[in-house]
């Protein structure tokens, strides 16, 4: 147990150190723990609880390694294929002590195998003190797979023809969406949630955030004939962005979730993604556009509140406000004209389970051969995103919505396919969101807001 003193103390390190120093420390921690956990001659039999602690320390370090390595854009300290240690047993400490006293289990792996057989035979779904932790580890494993698939050499635009590259992107996207849906179905269910981590809405948000990251990476890598991305991928990205923003804002409004730089980044990039999607696909119906605009507005309100607590984020908030105002100005009159000629249907409240198990949800990824003909539902079934213009004005009085005619050629005054300023705007935000804002953030001319007006 002494070998775990150092990594355990580092894991308990206070959160006040800012900047990349903290992440470099965590990056080194991953390498340290991978050495400590490596197979070694056993000197004595470890108790089940000691093995459980060993696994928990290792997998906590694994999650930190993935988080810091992706942030610092460095290789993982430990590859998934080299990991031989199992996940922690889904059991409380008292249960492990009791099982150890019987002498029936030589090690924790045998206990896990017996517990799995018991759960299958009884069809019971129970929660323990490590259920949330294990769910987070399994999600981080999928995140690692997403990063390796789309950031590594698995999909290379330069080494494949446009046809095979497109197929590779869609095949990887389909598999990873399936993995995320399987993870969501396996998330623990608490009968009486006592905190955020026991709420189903939190697991919905985590899944949507990963789906947003995945869809954006696929949209970035897929070949684009004549610089036009596939409509189905654009729509998927739009759905994920709307779902992630509205899902977070519901929790944030109820003060069930707090602000972090990571959530700030999710809201900012999600909003940019919605604006991008609206500019690329110009035949969305009014309901889809309205829901997208409402998501942008909700994201702006949340970002403004975060900006009060994160002063160095205000310039990003200003950019978001300018972009959002421009989109609303272009869309508002079009939506009003449509609503007077034909009343728009409304989408009733949708529960977290319906969001992922309903007939028209992201949680049901289509087969690979259906992507070409895929027409996603124009109604984005996202709870809390069906406000009309008057309702939006009432709820968000400080958000301007101007009546300016909608351009017939484009929703936005710039061509995002030829100008990557909007799509890549979060390049500096990546560094900011994890504690190391770029030097230009404080410059007086870091953003030229006039270009967005």
Description:
- The protein has 453 residues and is mainly alpha-helical.
- The protein folds into two domains: 1-123, no CATH class; 131-441, no CATH class.
- Helix content is 57%, strand content 0%.
- It contains 15 helices and no strands.
- The chain has helices spanning 5-11, 20-37, 48-72, 93-102, 108-122, 131-151, 162-186, 200-221, 231-253, 261-280, 286-309, 314-341, 352-357, 389-395, 427-433.
- α8 runs antiparallel to α9 (231-253) and α10 packs antiparallel against α15.
- The chain is elongated.
- Residues 1-6, 12-20, 342-423 and 434-453 have low confidence and may be disordered.
- Residues 25-94 form the Xylanolytic transcriptional activator regulatory domain.
- InterPro entries: XnlR_reg_dom (IPR007219), Yeast_MetPath_Reg (IPR052202).
- This is Xylanolytic transcriptional activator regulatory domain-containing protein.
- Keywords: DNA-binding, Metal-binding, Nucleus, Transcription, Transcription regulation, Zinc.
- One of its GO terms (molecular function) is DNA-binding transcription factor activity, RNA polymerase II-specific.
């Amino acid at each position: 147990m002494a070998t775990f003193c150092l990594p355990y103390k580092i894991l308990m390190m206070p959160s006040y150190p800012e900047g990349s120093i903290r992440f470099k420390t965590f990056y080194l921690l991953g390498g340290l723990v991978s050495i400590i956990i490596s197979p070694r001659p056993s000197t004595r039999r470890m108790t089940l609880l000691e093995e459980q602690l060993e696994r928990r320390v290792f997998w906590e370090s694994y999650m930190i390694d993935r988080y810091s390595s992706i942030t610092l854009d460095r290789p993982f300290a430990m590859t998934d294929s080299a990991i031989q240690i199992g996940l922690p047993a889904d059991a409380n400490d008292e249960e492990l002590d009791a099982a150890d006293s019987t002498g029936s289990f030589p090690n924790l792996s045998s206990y896990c195998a017996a517990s799995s057989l018991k759960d299958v035979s009884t069809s019971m779904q129970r929660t323990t003190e490590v259920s949330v932790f294990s769910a987070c580890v399994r999600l981080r494993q999928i995140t690692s797979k997403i990063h390796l698939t789309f950031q590594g050499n698995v999909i290379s635009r330069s080494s494949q023809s446009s046809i095979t590259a497109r197929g590779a992107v869609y095949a990887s996207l389909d598999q990873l969406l399936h993995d995320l849906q399987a993870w969501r179905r396996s998330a623990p269910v608490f009968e009486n949630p006592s905190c955020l981590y026991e709420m189903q809405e939190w697991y919905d948000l985590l899944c949507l955030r990963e789906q947003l990251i995945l869809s954006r990476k696929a949209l970035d890598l897929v070949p684009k004939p004549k610089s036009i991305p596939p409509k189905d991928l654009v729509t998927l990205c739009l759905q994920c962005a709307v779902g992630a923003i509205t899902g977070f804002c519901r929790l944030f409004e109820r003060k069930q979730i707090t602000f972090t730089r990571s959530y700030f980044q999710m809201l900012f990039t999600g909003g940019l993604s919605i604006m991008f999607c609206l500019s690329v696909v110009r035949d969305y119906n009014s309901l889809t556009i309205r829901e997208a605009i409402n998501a942008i507005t909700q994201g702006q309100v949340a970002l403004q509140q975060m900006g009060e607590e994160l002063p160095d984020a205000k310039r990003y908030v200003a950019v978001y406000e300018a972009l959002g105002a421009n989109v609303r100005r272009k869309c508002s009159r079009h939506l009003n004209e449509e609503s007077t000629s034909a009343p728009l249907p409304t989408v009733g409240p949708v529960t977290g389970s319906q969001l992922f198990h309903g007939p028209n949800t992201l949680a049901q990824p289509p087969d690979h051969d259906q992507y070409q003909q895929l027409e996603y539902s124009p109604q984005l079934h996202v709870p809390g995103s069906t406000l009309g213009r008057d309702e939006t004005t009432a709820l968000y009085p400080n958000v301007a919505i101007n009546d300016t005619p909608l351009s017939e050629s484009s929703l936005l005054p710039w061509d995002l396919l030829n100008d990557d300023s909007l799509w890549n705007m979060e390049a500096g935000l990546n560094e900011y969101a994890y504690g190391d804002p770029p030097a230009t953030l404080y410059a007086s001319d870091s953003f030229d807001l006039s270009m967005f007006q």
